[in-house]
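Deviation from plan, reported transparently: INI complex.
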Amino acid sequence: MIKTIEGDFSANTARFALVVGRFNSFVVDSLVQGAVDALKRHGVSENNLTIIRVPGAFEIPLAVQKAAGSNEYDAVIALGAVIRGGTPHFEYVAGECTKGLGQVALSAGIPVAFGVLTVDSIEQAIERSGTKAGNKGVEAALSALEMVSLLRNLDT
Ligand code: INI
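Because the crystal trials were delayed, the predicted structure below was used instead.
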């Protein structure tokens, strides 16, 4: 028989930090709303949710690293939106945010969920923040919840 180890959505006493970029807040607010709603619908209490706000996506990795190292949380959910403009700025912000979060995710010791949109247009951002392409905040929150449970199952 094949042994399978996986997580589920039952870790609803876990504590979550949501690290949120303020930039493009009209989109990011919907990601936050989706993430909070998803966690609450799975039984997570608002008392176990902390929102940490940073200026933009570039600042997200450092705040995630600090939150992950604080022993206050069981998982960290990064939420932001980088929308391509007419300048190369997008590439740098999106690249550094993604690279930084990848590094933090491996060293954090707790799950770090990636809910940062990197898109070409405002339309794509809207599509991925609660309209026809779902809500990346919901996805990130559910993956954090599942990963908390998986790590517990891997530890035992
Ligand atoms: N920050 C974002 O979160 N999204 C963006 O689309 C964005 N663009 O395109 O400029 C952005 N820039 C700000 C950046 O994250 C930093 O806050 C800023 O450079 C100060 O360090």
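The chain has a mean pLDDT of 96. We consider this an acceptable substitute for the interim report.
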